[in-house]
Design a protein that fits this description.
The protein is of the alpha/beta class and 687 residues long. The chain has 17 helices and 27 strands. The protein has a nine-stranded parallel β-sheet with strand order 5-4-3-2-1-9-8-7-6. It binds alpha-D-galactopyranose. Alpha-D-galactopyranose binds next to loops.
Length: 687
């Protein structure tokens, strides 16, 4: 089953015909067909053009666009057009506009100008979604619904009175009586004891640090409030067009929204990714978010937006040098995407994004950008057979949003330097560099098929989550400052690592964050398989550990913690009480013990992934790379049969169709790989 009814891989982009005179549309669809575009995202910001006055609709232009797209073989990812309310709505009801933490109401003139809790806004979106669904339910171009756009991009939270009332309802559902809230929030501290929910507000700007438990509940609430907006529209679409899949475009690894919850509510996971072409390591960070997208439903996903070249919202917007746009698109496929789409189809003539790149640049068909578009379109056709093929990973990285929100609470932590994305990346980078496939899992998620589980940090950890890790039974690595608080952000009795103490066999006597720039030496014991006495370095964070029931793998050398345990192991569970500059020695030893193999042997700069029988080798370097193939196959991009040593040109790729593997023989895999592995089983609860 594909992501939509469109066969093969999806290719295309956001299409904003309302920004162009109609005579341009004919050229648009003609060129789309020429480039092999098979999907366009339409009407994302079109509310004010579709409903220019309350209840008065002008669908003529969108009807013509939908027809034109269909006539040229292009399916529509049709937006419900609710990403920006129209001016008449916010002028009739100024309460629709969002209010910031300092109490300033933000005006109209950009986009996402709405309060997520506004009943007026919600009601108007649902009405428009119904009108759209009823109008286009039978249209042959309609292949997917696109609700709103990048929720939380500009408006994650609103601090108005309506939001305060909504927050109070949400809190009373969670905590019951006001005393429940007092207990959960620890309001005995700093004299915050409430006697009624009416006294409780969002964490608006206050004289000093705001109660971290209040901020934590606010984070949960804000993610849920926007998800309610999504669900309200989805319910209408489901009712009117039950067979059309629904998505909303995610923003990679976004702090504000718990994407595990969000993904469960949608049919297709889609993502917008904008790695900075000026950053030579940006393809590594983006690979992590692609692996998250694949893991959210454990099935293929869609790269719904990326840039063909430069974006328009950085301080300096670097273009993509030749080959990079194609390579980055192939990279998304390598990590499980079943399509590579763009913002946007035709480069804008006006507005804040007129310098943002597009598939069809200002220079038209004479431009280099257009030649890249044609090349990518042709490549995606050659790769059509990979659609639906599955990735299998034996290593899992745990990512839990609630714990992340707790960890990054402002103004009350031992160190503000612990940032979850960086902690994840510290483990992901060496895995990525060696070609070891990685899944992301939520705390409490499915660990079947994984041999190694890495918890870079689980600051907030429940007894159930500790039990889940204890039950895993494979090789487990836990990073520092884990097991510190409960879901109300209250420190576990006895301190860290709280419910993880028995599993790790250590207790944290005292957190020992390091000042910026200070480097702490860490000496590995020979038992780790590294060179005897190998010295590593830690920065930012260390802990004074009491070792209760574990062996010591490494000790601090010099400094305040000289001689204290830095890394410990109990059975197959390794604990790091510090942040190492480079986790590779610890990681490689655990991978070796667990028998986890890379999917290919690759030099620096070459990324290797496997989807079913397809091996992707992506050379991100600016010089050619040599790779020795373990198995022969056909390169789908060139049609050539390859085996043994090959050379991949700079910023180029090989996508090798290998023979189906016999039982137990998949490099880096467990169990059987047959042709059946290319079919992704639908996850539970999917349509
Ligand atoms: C986001 C938005 C698009 C566009 C691009 C520009 O992804 O969804 O509408 O603004 O950014 O990079």
């Amino acid at each position: 089953m594909g992501l939509t009814r469109v066969p093969g891989l999806l290719f295309g982009g956001d299409y904003n015909p309302e920004q162009w005179p109609e005579h341009v549309w004919d050229e648009d669809v003609r060129l789309m067909a020429e480039a092999g575009v098979n999907m366009a995202t339409v009407a994302v910001f079109s509310w004010s053009r579709l409903e220019p006055r309350r209840g008065e609709y002008e669908f003529g232009w969108l009807d013509r666009i939908m027809d034109l797209l269909h006539e040229h073989g292009v399916a529509a990812d049709l937006a419900t057009a609710t990403a920006t309310p129209p001016p008449w709505l916010v002028r009739e009801h100024p309460g629709v506009l969002p209010v910031d933490a300092a109490g300033t109401r933000l005006d109209f003139g950009s986009r996402q100008s709405y309060c997520p809790s506004s009943p007026v806004f919600r009601e108007a979106t649902v009405r428009l979604a119904r009108v759209m669904a009823e109008r286009y339910r039978e249209h042959p171009a309609l292949a997917m619904w696109h609700i709103s756009n990048e929720y939380a991009d500009h408006t994650l939270e609103c601090f108005c009175e309506e939001s305060a009332r909504h927050f109070r309802r949400w809190l009373s559902a969670r905590h019951g009586s006001i005393d429940g809230l007092n207990a959960a929030w620890g309001t005995s501290c700093w004299g915050q004891h409430y006697t009624s929910y009416d006294q409780v507000n969002p964490p608006r700007k206050a004289p000093g640090p705001v109660n971290p438990a209040q901020v934590l509940d606010w984070r949960r609430f804000c993610s849920d409030a926007l998800l309610e907006c999504f669900e309200l529209e989805k319910a209408v679409l489901r009712e009117v067009t039950p067979d059309i899949p629904v998505t909303t475009n995610f923003m990679s690894i976004l702090h504000g929204l718990d994407y595990w919850k969000w993904a469960a509510a949608e049919d297709v996971v889609s993502d917008d990714a904008y790695p900075d072409p000026a950053d030579p390591a940006s393809h590594v960070a983006v690979a992590l978010s692609y692996d998250l997208m694949r893991s959210l439903k454990r099935r293929p996903w869609l790269l719904l937006e990326q840039a063909g070249g430069a974006v328009s919202w950085r301080e300096v917007n670097a273009p993509k040098p030749p080959g990079m746009m194609r390579l980055h698109s192939l990279q998304a496929l390598a990590h499980g995407a079943d399509g590579a789409m763009f913002f946007q189809w035709r480069q804008a003539k006006y507005g804040p994004e007129k310098f943002h790149s597009a598939l069809l640049p200002h220079g038209g068909t004479a431009s280099r950008g257009w030649r890249d578009t044609l090349r990518l379109g042709a490549d995606l056709k050659r790769l059509a057979e990979i659609a639906g093929s599955a990735t299998r990973a034996e290593v899992a990285l745990v990512l839990d949003w609630e714990s992340w929100w707790g960890l990054e609470a402002p103004e009350s932590m031992p160190s503000n330097r612990l940032k979850l994305k960086a902690l994840l990346q510290a483990w992901y980078e060496p895995l990525h560099a060696t070609g070891v496939a990685v899944d992301l899992v939520p705390a409490g998620g499915d660990l079947s098929g994984h041999r190694v589980v890495i918890v870079p940090n689980l600051y907030m950890c429940t007894g159930e989550q500790a039990g889940w890790l204890a039950d895993f039974g494979g090789h487990l690595i836990v990073g520092p400052f884990s097991g510190v608080t409960d879901p109300d952000d209250q420190v576990h009795d006895g301190g860290a690592p709280g419910p993880l103490r028995g599993l790790l066999g250590v207790a944290v006597d005292e957190f020992w964050p390091l000042p910026d720039g200070l480097v702490q030496r860490v000496r590995l014991a020979p038992a780790t398989g590294g060179e005897p006495g190998h010295v590593l370095s830690a920065r930012t964070w260390t802990e004074w550990l009491r070792v209760e029931d574990a062996e010591v793998l490494a000790r601090y050398e010099g400094g305040d913690l000289d001689g204290q345990a830095a890394i410990t192991r109990r059975g197959t569970v390794t604990y790091l009480g510090c942040l190492l500059d480079d986790v590779t020695p610890v990681l490689s030893e655990v991978l070796a013990r667990a028998g986890v193999e890379p999917v290919a042997d690759v030099p620096e700069g070459v990324e290797a992934t496997r989807r079913g029988r397809y091996l992707f080798l992506l050379n991100h370097a600016t010089s050619p790379a040599k790779v020795n193939l373990r198995e022969p196959g056909k390169d789908l991009l060139t049609g050539r049969d390859l085996s043994g040593p090959i050379e991949i040109p700079a910023r180029d790729a090989v996508v090798l169709r290998t023979d189906p593997q016999p039982t137990g023989a998949q490099p880096g895999g467990t169990g059987t790989l047959t042709d059946a592995d290319t079919d992704v089983p639908p996850t539970e609860g999917e349509r």
